[in-house]
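Q: What residues go here?
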């Protein structure tokens, strides 16, 4: 897909990834890389990075990666399962995510993502999800 990051930035306009300020540096078959700059909207009331923000970044990276990695005959996907292990936090600066396709089958994909603080390079979370691939309706092109 030609300039996939720009295409996905435009598609997310007005939706949660846009509201969270998620930005994409690389989207290609089997790989996605994105980030956001920590702001108040990313924090829980206790002042720490909200777990849902981290999950949103990782899940969106995996989802966008899934879309650019769909096999022939697939029309889209839906998430079957996701899991996150939180190892740290970031209170300011950038938060980055890299997602990789581990399994790319006809009916499912499994993705792993690692979320890190850009300031110190420490891992904030490890994330895994399974995507169920949706077929195109018969006769659709």
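A:
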């Amino acid at each position: 897909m030609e300039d996939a990051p720009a295409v996905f930035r435009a598609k997310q306009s007005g939706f949660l990834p846009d509201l969270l300020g998620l930005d994409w540096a690389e989207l290609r078959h089997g790989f996605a890389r994105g980030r956001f700059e920590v702001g108040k909207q990313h924090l829980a009331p206790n002042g720490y990075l909200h777990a849902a923000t981290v999950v949103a970044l990782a899940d969106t990276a995996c989802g966008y990666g899934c879309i650019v990695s769909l096999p022939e005959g697939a029309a889209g996907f839906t998430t079957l399962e996701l899991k996150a292990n939180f190892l740290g936090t970031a209170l300011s600066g950038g938060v980055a995510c890299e997602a990789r396709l581990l399994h790319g089958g006809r009916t499912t994909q499994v993705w792993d993502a690692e979320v890190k603080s850009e300031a110190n390079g420490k891992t904030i979370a490890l994330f895994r999800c399974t995507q169920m691939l949706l077929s195109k309706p018969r006769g659709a092109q």
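A: Context that may help when evaluating the design: The longest strand covers residues 74-86. The chain has one domain: 4-135.
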